[in-house]
Amino acid sequence: MEQRIDDGLSPYRVYARNEWAALREGTPMTLTQAEIAQLQSLHDQLDMAEVEEIYLPLSRLLSLYVATTQKLYRAQQAFLGTEDTKVPYIIGVAGSVAVGKSTTARVLRALLTRWPNVPKVDLITTDGFLFPNAVLEREHLMEKKGFPESYDLPALLRFLTDIKAGRRPVRAPVYSHLIYDVMPNGTIEIDRPDILIVEGLNVLQTGRLPKDGKAIPFVSDFFDFSVYLDADDNVLMRWYVDRFLALRGTAFADPKSYFHRYSRLSDTEAVATATSIWSRINLVNLHENILPTRQRADLILKKGESHRVEEVALRRL
């Protein structure tokens, strides 16, 4: 049986939706409904109430964390007499396929950029650090795409090391969901942001054990705060299948799409195909690699069938 967040042994303080919403304390909403609609991904259910009750309080909490971290960093500089470059505050967003990570990351970015100190907030996804399809095919890993072994972890760690070192600019590869591959020669520049949001499936996974006394870093070592988006298995599967059905008439319809062959499937065939992909690949990855990292997050957002966050669990300091 899946372990509950509020099992009495957890280091989290669990809030019902209305309890978490009460933490807004008059925080003004800075996004319009039209902007919210542009931020949400296909099939995610997001409205003004969701943003006000869940993401606005979270952005307020994060802004406090960022300000406190920056103050501590300045105090350390004064104590040591150093003038180091600015160190970005890094937020990790993790969770299963179809749970809504991209929408959450974009909403947080939009809200954080509108706080009074107007921080520079950048966003990347770890999809760009997947090995190219040619490498995955050669290594027989196409059925493992999204699993830890399908990522160029050394490249991702170098990127995060450069970000934390304040180097500028730092370039990250770009992934195309249309061609289902890393874009050749495509890069995005990250130039010393105040906050960097890193969104991906396995960003909270731990690394190998140290050898010969030498620590081996893993991605979450670079995070100052992390969010895990959670939902029950059967709910995630339904969202995945529904999204697959919708994509037949949108992205899959493009002849350049890697999944163009699925655009002509009947409803019955599409449901069977999506269910098979989910059970064979995404569900396995969820239980083997993603869900076990949930308890490493600083904040867990538990979604219900409506795609709305019903419960918030914040790690106690």
Strand order of the largest sheet: 1-9-8-7-2-6-3
- The average pLDDT is 91
* Fraction of helical residues: 25-40%
Structural class: alpha/beta
Number of strands: 9
Number of helices: 8
Strand content bin: 15-25%
For the terminal residues, how far apart are their CA atoms?
A: 28 Å
One letter per element, helices H and strands E, the order comes to EHHHEHEHHEEEEHHEE
Envelope shape: globular
- Cα-atom Rg, whole angstroms? 20 Å
The largest sheet is:
7 strands, mixed
Pick out the low-confidence regions: none
Keywords:
317 residues, alpha/beta, seven-stranded mixed sheet, two-stranded antiparallel sheet, 18% strand
What features would you describe in this structure?
The protein has eight helices and nine strands. By secondary structure, the chain is of the alpha/beta class. The strands form two sheets. Strands 1-9-8-7-2-6-3 form a seven-stranded mixed beta sheet. Strands 4-5 form a two-stranded antiparallel ribbon. Helix 3 (48-80) crosses helix 4 and helix 7 (233-247) crosses helix 8 (267-290). The mean pLDDT is 91.
Short structural description:
This protein is an alpha/beta fold and 317 residues long. It contains eight helices and nine strands.
Topology at a glance:
Layout: E1 12-16, H1 17-21, H2 33-39, H3 48-80, E2 89-95, H4 101-112, E3 121-125, H5 133-138, H6 153-164, E4 170-176, E5 181-190, E6 195-199, E7 225-230, H7 233-247, H8 267-290, E8 299-303, E9 309-315
Parallel strand pairs: 2-6, 2-7, 3-6, 7-8
Antiparallel strand pairs: 1-9, 4-5, 8-9
